[in-house]
Design brief:
With 117 residues, the protein is mainly β. The chain contains no helices and eight strands. Strands 1-6-7-8 form a four-stranded antiparallel sheet, with no helix packed on it. The chain has a four-stranded antiparallel sheet with strand order 2-3-4-5, with no helix packed on it. The two termini are 30 Å apart.
């Protein structure tokens, strides 16, 4: 996992969350291009767990301000945007050819960290 560059949009296909100040303890969510799924792994785990499949967008996570603008540098009081664009065949038994169409769905949410004491 590579952090977003300074002065570049804070967005990408993975996010790593720390529930304490110990950065060795984390949960990482990432989009896996090989099977187009969102996966979850924790520190010390050797196997990633699939959280969602059939995700068509590569940019899943953004760091935003309170107005929904993607930030170009980390700052305090940010929110994490999550955008999942799903696809599926209406009939999984249909033939795949140029006339095949897919249904699509989108889930978009923003998550703020809990206030600290």
């Amino acid at each position: 996992m590579t952090p977003a560059a300074v002065n570049a949009n804070q967005q990408g296909n993975a996010v790593q969350l720390h529930s304490t100040t110990n950065t060795n303890q984390f949960t990482r969510y990432f989009w896996d291009a090989s099977d187009q799924s969102l996966k979850r792994v924790t520190n010390g785990s050797t196997t990633a767990e699939t959280v969602a499949s059939s995700i068509s967008n590569r940019i899943v996570f953004t760091v935003e301000n309170h107005r929904g603008n993607v930030l170009t540098n980390p700052q305090n009081n940010f929110v994490v945007g999550v955008d999942l664009q799903f696809f599926e065949l209406p009939n999984p038994r249909s033939r795949l050819d140029e006339s095949t169409h897919f249904d699509s769905y989108r889930v978009r949410t923003r998550i703020a960290r809990r206030a600290t004491d």
